[in-house]
Amino acid sequence: MHHTTRIAALGLAALVVAFSSGCLERKERVIVNADGSSEIRLIVEGEDETDLNEGDRLPRNGGQWLVERSKRQTPDGKTVHRLAAIARYPAGFDLPFNFADPGDQMAKAYLQFPTEVTMEERPDGWYYHFHRTYEPRAYAQVGFLQDAASEEASRFAAKQQAGEEIGLVDFKGVSEVLVKVAIGKIEIFAREAFLETNPNTPQDTWLDVHDALEELRKGANYDRMAVILQNADKQDNSQLMEQLAEEFDKVTTDTIVSALSGSPYVRDTGAFRQRFAFHKKAFEITEDLGDERFEVSVQMPGAIVSHNGDRKTNNVVTWTFAGKMLYDRTVELLVTSRIDR
Fold first, then answer.
1. Which one, of 255, 236, 190, lies nearest residue 6 by Cα?
2. Which of 7, 101, 148, 246 is the most buried (most CB within 10 A)?
């Protein structure tokens, strides 16, 4: 089947895979010592082991990190996979900005959390400042499209629950929304990559890309997708969906690159491909982070002077937040302590 007639099924697959990420519990404890050295202890748990290996990068053995993996059974019989990591840093040593491996070209796509520990001498004693910034994850522009798809899916589900008759025409309408969203997401990532790698190119070069994606959308076989949707709940097709999602990525990428290659103003599409892949990866990670739960505790030397945490117990300040808190906003963790003279 020609790729323009398969794009409808692929659009569904891309959305299904995007909405099927697992949930991780992240518990981190940072210990700041009186000499300015520090220690990071991280425990990450989830029911799906692949969540520890894919998405946002987690620490691996090597460098400052010592990592152990294990699993345990819950009282209700579920298996929980666990990653425990520990790293120690001398005073003045740069703390990690992310958990990427050295030289990883996708490092900036992962969760970024610049962390700094500083010491300051004042007349009344030594002050210790812990400052971490979780950098914002771009979400709103693509999230708006996905919200539209979710609303359509909710309306469709409401009709089913109400016992209304659902026919191929209804499934076709849903398929059109899903494909529009899937291609709309891709166009956002491609546009960002295009502006970064071709800043002085006439705008009609980009409009050729837009038109090519529109033709791809219009050429979709929505009747076939309606049949796939209608039969989706009759069999486990998760493997098929993943395969189609990969093909969706290839088809849309080839369409964009082909349109760019036809422009006399674009000499090399290699740089575009790299940045395009980066933006797609970054958003995938952002989605994965959305349903994760964070608990960060910082143990400071001396007595706590001030902080912006959720709670304080003696010289330990703790913050708890969901990954969605990082969507399009900065999250700062601040705590200051003092050792009297």
1. 255
2. 7
CA 251 from centroid of its chain's CA atoms: 23
Q: Could you give the 3-state DSSP secondary structure of residue 270?
A: helix
d(Cα 107, Cα 57) in Å, to the nearest integer? Answer: 8
CA angle 330, 336, 341 (to 5 degrees): 165
Structural domain boundaries in the chain:
1-33+96-341
Q: Do residues 223 and 250 make contact, with C-beta atoms less than 8 angstroms apart?
A: no
Q: Angle, nearest 10°, between helix axes 140-161 and 168-197?
A: 170
Per-residue pLDDT of 32-70, as tens digits, reads 999 999 999 999 999 999 889 989 999 999 989 999 999
Of 42, 59, 49, 57, nearest to 22 by C-alpha is 49
φ, ψ for residue 305, nearest 5 deg: -90, -50
- How far apart are the two ends of the chain, measured CA to CA in Å? 78
Give the Cα separation of 244 and 247 in Å (integer).
5
Helix, strand or coil, per DSSP, at residue 41: strand
Of 333, 322, 339, nearest in space to 133 by CA: 333
Q: What is the pTM of this model?
A: 0.87
Q: How many residues does the chain have?
A: 341
